[in-house]
Specification:
Blueprint: E1 2-6, E2 9-15, H1 20-31, E3 36-53, E4 58-64, E5 68-80, E6 83-94, E7 101-121, E8 127-131, E9 136-140
Antiparallel strand pairs: 1-2, 2-7, 3-4, 3-5, 3-7, 5-6, 6-7, 8-9
């Protein structure tokens, strides 16, 4: 991972083989990032992506080993139990003539070529706390 900070903007470039979630979590812990939003482009593989079913309060995930272009990636970082928690959603396009897309919550993804991320830091820490009605840890303000 290459990283450069410019005031409240961090430019992050992940290299082939790096884990998206692990890399951002490690960076946030090392840099003391307690609140941020980010976007990214590039290509990923070995993607575990899914959705949350409110009725059952469960995530449903599928894993794909193929390579995808990151058509859109948005995420944020907040604190859960005092530690950085990376939350990512993406739309991914198949690297073939169909350009078929999948999208949802990213549980894990490995960089296939490169992943370029612009991360904007917040000023004050934001925390996620359990919401029993929803069944998730939601941002509290």
């Amino acid at each position: 991972m290459r990283h450069r900070r410019e005031d409240t903007l961090d430019v992050i470039v992940l290299a082939r083989g790096e884990s998206l979630i692990e890399s951002l979590t490690t960076l946030a812990a090392q840099e003391g990032i307690t609140h941020a939003s980010f976007q990214g482009i590039g290509a990923v593989e070995d993607v575990t992506i899914g959705y949350y079913e409110l009725a059952t309060k469960e995530y449903h995930f599928n894993t794909y080993t193929e390579t995808f272009e990151v058509a859109s990636m948005q995420g944020n970082i907040a604190l859960v139990e005092g530690k950085p928690f990376v939350h990512v959603h993406a739309v991914l396009s198949r690297c073939d003539e169909t350009l078929g897309c999948i999208g949802g919550h990213i549980k894990d993804a490995r960089v296939a070529v490169t992943l370029e991320i612009h991360l904007r830091r917040g000023v004050e820490a934001i925390t996620r706390l359990p919401d029993d009605t929803i069944g998730l840890k939601l941002i509290t303000l």
